[in-house]
Amino acid sequence: MNGIVWWEIETADPERFQSFHTALWSWAFEPAFADTSLGADYWIIKADGVTLGGLQRSLESTQPSSGGTRIYFEIDDLEAAFVSIAENGGTIERHRTELGGDDRWFGIYRDPTGTSFGLWTANPENP
User: Fold this and answer.
1) Domain for residue 97, yes or no?
2) Confidence class of residue 18 from pLDDT cuts 50, 70 and 90?
3) Is residue 1 part of a domain?
4) Are 73 and 126 within one domain?
5) How far apart are CA 67 and CA 70, in angstroms?
6) Global model pTM greater than 0.85
7) Is residue 77 assigned to a domain?
8) Averaged pLDDT for residues 101-108
């Protein structure tokens, strides 16, 4: 395998997705591919000017997926992230979970559009 070259999220409500993830991660969303044959609303996702991936409005005929790939974000403070997620309309699906050892904890949340993400930290719980 040569490595991952791109990732994108598809949702029926990209405006809500953008609002939530801008508040949570300070991401920016730039409209893209308007003059191409893509045939969909599309945005480039950026953090601090660096391109991360893409966001696409799902087609009305597309059914929501119950499977797929989950992206994990490495963060310093898992509990602070949970607070921010809840304050911005997200749902915590799995609170801090230890994977063994003293440097492997994760959690899972779902944003207001129903997209599931993971959080990963090497830091112990902050009191």
Assistant:
1) yes
2) very high
3) no
4) yes
5) 9
6) no
7) yes
8) 77
Q: Are residues 54 and 100 in the same domain?
A: no
In sequence order, the β-bridge partners of residue 117 are 71, 109
At 33, the pLDDT band (50, 70, 90 cuts) reads confident
Taking residues 78-84, what's their average pLDDT? 94
Number of domains the chain is built from: 2
In the chain, the amino acid numbered 12 is A
Q: What is the DSSP letter of 88?
A: T
| CA nearest to 68, candidates 116, 107, 24 | 116
Residue 76 token pair? 């310093």
Pairing outcome for strands 116-121 and 105-110? antiparallel
Q: Could you write out the DSSP letters of every residue in 1-17?
A: -------EEEES-HHHH
What's the sign of the alpha-carbon dihedral 114, 118, 124, 126? negative
Determine the average pLDDT of the residues in 116-120.
89
Average pLDDT over residues 55-66: 68
Provide the residue range defining the domain that includes 12. Answer: 7-59
Contact 30, 43 (CB under 8 A): yes
